[in-house]
Amino acid sequence: MRRELVAQARATVHFETRQGEQMQIDFGVRRVEIGGVATAVFLFVANLGFSRRRHVRAYRHEKQDSWFDGLESAFRVFGGCPRRSCSTTRGR
Question: Which of 44, 39, 42, 40 minimizes the C-alpha distance to 69?
């Protein structure tokens, strides 16, 4: 197990940016039980490149208004918007 952890650490390359330069955004989905009913919850995630600060919000869907709301929320929490944002979504 230790060898595997060492190999994973070596394979991980962090994308380094200057402060205020870049933010990565994406959605993830998790199934949770709410009131005894299995429900899909869509998680908007924003990561700042320099500080690695993370902002997460849950939504009922991954539609355009969720993206906009998630971005606006991240900008409020982070105190502004970065010079550029990079969506990490792959072909959804």
Answer: 44
- The amino acid that residue 87 corresponds to is S
Indicate the pTM of the whole model. Answer: 0.71
The answer to whether 87 and 64 are in contact (CB under 8 A) is no
pLDDT at site 91: 45
Q: What average pLDDT does the segment 25-33 reach?
A: 94
Q: What is the pLDDT of residues 40-60, one digit of tens each?
A: 999 999 998 878 889 999 999
CB 50 within 8 A of CB 82: no
Residues near 75 by beta carbon (within 8 Å), at least 6 away in sequence:
81
The 8-class DSSP code of residue 36 comes to: T
User: Burial level of 23, CB count in 10 A (0-12/13-18/19+)?
Assistant: buried
